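Could you help me review a protein record that somebody else here produced? This is what I was given.
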Amino acid sequence: MSKFGICNLSVVPIRADFSHKTEQVSQLLYGEIVEIMVVKKEWTMVRNEFDSYEGWVSTSHITKLSIKTIN
């Protein structure tokens, strides 16, 4: 599994838990790089490389990257 991903939409909410009903703790902007922590089908826990915020995003909003892509 790829360890990194990139936000593929203009704005993506980062949630406190893996549900659309939970609090939005931060957001990702198009092109931001994240570290992929956990994947649970429709939800992925990420750590934003810019400010180190952690939370859950919809899996379809992240495109997985190979290490070579970001080096």
